[in-house]
Amino acid sequence: MQSSKRKAQPEPEAGPSAAAAPTAKRVAAAAPAVVHPARVRALSEGAMLPSGPVVYLMSRDQRAADNWALLHAAQRAAGAGRQLAVAFTLFPSFAGTSAARHFGFMLRGLAETAAALEARGIPFLLLRGQAAEAVPPLLARLGCSLLVTDFSPLREGRAWRAALAAAAACPVEEVDAHNVVPVWRASPKLEYAARTIRPKITAALPEFLTDFPPLPTLPGWDAAAAAGIAPPDWPTLISEATRANSAAEAVPEVDWLRPGEAAAAAALSAFLQPSRLRLYEKRNDPNCPQALSGLSPYLHYGQVSAQRCALAARAAGGGAACDSFLEELVVRKELSDNFCLHNPHYDSLAGASEWARASLAAHAGDKREHLYGRRELEEAKTADRLWNAAQLEMVHTGKMHGWCRMYWAKKILEWTESPEVALREAIYLNDSAHVGGGRARVRVGAHATRSRRVQLGRARPKRLRGVHVEHRRHPRHGLGGAACVWQDPLYELCVRALCVSPPLHASLTRARTQRRQTQV
Q: Using CA atoms, how far apart are residues 18 and 22, in angstroms rounded to an integer?
């Protein structure tokens, strides 16, 4: 194996021309490609090394089925008669009061994925630490000939992939396994609305919306033993994650949602039943919770492929409801990746349009009827009963109806001293409790709430009329009397899979303390 580090392709600066830069070089395989060549790009120079296995570093797309990155790695390995291993990097410690909710869901899904891979003779290697530090030693021990990664538009993921490409002694290739149309193929520049990116994605769908081929047969090997790494002890890891913080205010796991690929497939099948799919046109009505798909947590963690969902929806038919679902699943979701890839300020007001920043600045001094701090917001101690219900539901169950979310975020703008603070608090509250914070679409949604005709002075307030708010006792936590917006348990959940959040939700402290005292 070569001992010198390979020259990494320089990471393109985020901006309108990022995806069009020479660094987005397409990678063509010698054998007929089972993965569209435009879905793959090189992160470092050089051809596949003459010997050694292929390693797929799984990150955003945590599944064994319908995974273009895994299929590309398997094709490259099978074509050269090499073995294939899958690696995953995990933080060295589980910190933060939301560790149980975030890592518990992810690790339970990964355990299922690892078992499916090992049944195909593909070892799953779990590493602890930052990818740029933990992966190169593994590649060296294995004598790796090629490293394949999946894609994320967020800056943290792009940074560690660039660092890994520079440190690895083998070539590194990146595959967009998350989007139906690869983000760099959909558009080479920042798109400002669904109407501008929709024609481009629609035109590319016949080329990219194809079924998945089977995984090729690969040579077997005992990669875990060769690398000196024991197979993951999933029960111990899950126990460590879910008990990482025993503080009373720690956010617990959600107990109404089963993680993993099998559960994701079941949720997709249930949603596509004709009687339920027809209801999707009522998805913006919080009083019709059964209209929601319940697929967001699985899509966020990569436990189900958006492409598989699109193919299944097309096969199911459903007319206007199916068209609406595909619009959200493909166009709107991929617009979010486009925004985060091409806008370096996707999580700050600097990334908003100039007219929006000017209007926000002009009305920054407008009088606020109420001003609330972070503690009052996270404990839902506002004067708005509906807002409190939506916030408490997110705290206790990890979810919030999408239409209520817009109302929730716009009220934060009214109740904080500046738009900058409003954006920061909205992201903090969401990432801390929602089983899906940190994803690209959360960033875009928060931006839209701040910059699309909702400024003070030119505000278009969100009004929720006829929404039923009821008091329920949470079955697990015994939080009697918590007001919640009624909705189906299977809905929009999103969680920061590989990032931890700061302490939050002291609102649980007193309730749990009282419960423990009662039990004693």
A: 9
CA distance 316 to 402: 24
| 122 vs 467: which has the higher pLDDT | 122
In order of start, what are the domains of the chain with their CATH numbers?
Answer: 1-92+129-178 (3.40.50.620), 180-214+258-292+303-342 (1.25.40.80), 349-515 (1.10.579.10)
pLDDT digits (tens, 9 = 90+) for 340-379: 999 999 888 888 888 888 888 888 888 889 999 999 999 9
Distance set, CA 137 to CA 143, 193, 334, 345, 498 (Å): 10, 43, 34, 33, 21
Nearest 5°: the CA angle 152, 68, 319 is 90
Q: Is 491 helix (H, G, I), strand (E, B) or coil?
A: coil
Cα separation, 387 vs 380, in Å, equals: 8
Distance between CA atoms of 165 and 432, rounded to whole angstroms? 31
pLDDT tens digits, one per residue of 137-173: 999 999 999 999 999 999 999 999 999 999 999 999 9
pLDDT above 70: percentage of residues in the chain: 73
Tell me how far apart the alpha carbons of residues 62 and 245 are, in angstroms, rounded to a whole number: 25
CA–centroid distance for 479 within its chain: 29
Which residues contact residue 499 at a Cβ distance below 8 angstroms, ignoring those fewer than 6 apart?
A: 156, 431, 438
| Residue 205 clears pLDDT 50, i.e. is over it | yes
The answer to whether 404 touches 464, Cβ cutoff 8 Å, is yes
CA quadruple 127, 128, 134, 137: dihedral sign: negative
Cα diameter, the chain: 69
What average pLDDT does range 259-263 have in this prediction?
97
Going by C-alpha positions, the residue among 43, 80, 72 that lies closest to residue 170 is 43
Hey, which of 3-17, 41-55, 419-433, 477-491 has the most confident mean pLDDT? 41-55
Q: Which helix (H) or strand (E) holds 121?
A: none
First to last CA, the chain: 62
DSSP assignment string, 250-315? PPPPPSS---SHHHHHHHHHHHTSHHHHGGGGGTT-TT-GGGS---HHHHHHTSS-HHHHHHHHHH
396-412, pLDDT tens digit by residue?
A: 888 888 888 889 998 99
Cα 274 from Cα 369, distance rounded (Å):
46
